[in-house]
Amino acid sequence: MPNERRWYICKIHKVTQAKYEIIELLSKEYSIKSLCEIMKVSRSGYYKWLKNKGILNNYEINRKKLGELIVDVHKRKPSYGYHRINKIIRDETGWYVSSNLVHKVCKILNIKSKAKHYKYKRPGEESIKYSNIINGNWKTSRPFEKVVSDTTTFYFKKKKYDWTFYLDVFNNEIVGYDVRESMCGNGVLNHREALNNMLNNKIKRGYENLETIVHTDQGVVYSSVSFNNIFNSYKVTRSMSRAGTPTDNPVIESKNGWIKKEMYIDFDINNYNTVQEFIDDIVWDNNNYRPSYALQYKNPVEYRTQLGFK
């Protein structure tokens, strides 16, 4: 069988190489001729091996180059797995290799994604004000059809901040956001500015007259009358998760978890003067650089524009 034959040939090659190494080790004490006779290998084969020792063939050269590229991407983006690493190498160098090969080299180099997954809680009660219109149906056919939002709290240079952002379910693009000093996720100005940023982007990109479902959790601000009155002037329908049920909003919960890990793994806070610069860079990276499995390993803007959407 082909696989068995390949394994057998590979084993013979390794045994022969081991014999050559033993001969080289003992050649200072014994004659090469006698050592070759004892090891049952030809002298010409030994001398050929000695001449080419340390010289890489094309396969080994390419494997070494690929390893260097993988290490480079991993240093820049430690959270990336082998699929994303392969996509970045392809985009930056034009070199197409299989994800299996990248995975194999990652294992040899002991390179692993540093990001972790999160567990979710049991479902709670539905909101009295706004029902869960989405109800697990996250299928979309265009941008700004379904948008989700959440607030995440993080530390930047020993100070606590709230970052509220809006995510387009169509392509996981961050379409609105705002960052301010933390008010435990309940900052009215933080929520209002993030919402206005999203609505302005919706208008700017030509989706003003199309309906948008905005889905959130039952947070204090998200549930407030003043916050929801802002939607009265726009074609927006509200939808809410059941209380304490992150699984009702898996899109934003997943993104929130990944972003919170990646902001400390892939971005060096010491390189930024202000928290706004820090968040702006993360948003740009998410929208224009980070490959996504759900988007066939394209970034959100790349995916959207290739489908002909603004």
Helices and strands in order:
Blueprint: H1 2-26, H2 32-39, H3 43-52, H4 58-76, H5 82-93, H6 99-108, E1 146-156, E2 159-168, E3 173-181, H7 188-204, E4 212-216, H8 220-223, H9 225-229, E5 236-240, H10 250-265, H11 275-288, H12 300-306
Parallel strand pairs: 1-4, 4-5
Antiparallel strand pairs: 1-2, 2-3
How would you characterize this protein structure?
The protein is elongated, with a radius of gyration of 28 Å. The protein has 12 helices and 5 strands. It is of the alpha/beta class. Helices cover about 45% and strands about 15% of the residues. Helix 4 packs across helix 5. It folds into 3 domains: about 50 residues, no CATH class; about 50 residues; about 160 residues, Ribonuclease H-like superfamily/Ribonuclease H (Nucleotidyltransferase, domain 5, 2-Layer Sandwich), CATH 3.30.420.10. The two termini are about 55 Å apart. Strands 3-2-1-4-5 form a 5-stranded mixed sheet. The longest helix is centred in the N-terminal third of the chain and has 25 residues.
Can you tag this structure with a few keywords?
310 residues, alpha/beta, Nucleotidyltransferase, domain 5, 3 domains, five-stranded mixed sheet, elongated
Specify the CATH architecture of the largest domain: 2-Layer Sandwich
- Poorly predicted parts: none
Supply the number of structural domains: 3
Please state the average pLDDT score. 88
Q: What's the CATH H-level homologous superfamily of the largest domain?
A: Ribonuclease H-like superfamily/Ribonuclease H
Instruction: Compute the CA-based radius of gyration.
Output: 28 Å
The portion of residues assigned to helices is 40-55%
Number of helices: 12
**Termini separation (Å)?**
54 Å
- What is the name of the CATH class of the largest domain? Alpha Beta
Spatially, the strands of the biggest sheet line up as 3-2-1-4-5
Which percent range describes the beta-strand content?
5-15%
Secondary-structure element order, N to C: HHHHHHEEEHEHHEHHH
Instruction: Classify the fold: give the CATH topology of the largest domain.
Output: Nucleotidyltransferase, domain 5
Biggest pleated sheet: 5 strands, mixed
The computed structural class is alpha/beta
Q: Give the number of DSSP strands.
A: 5
User: What global shape is seen?
Assistant: elongated
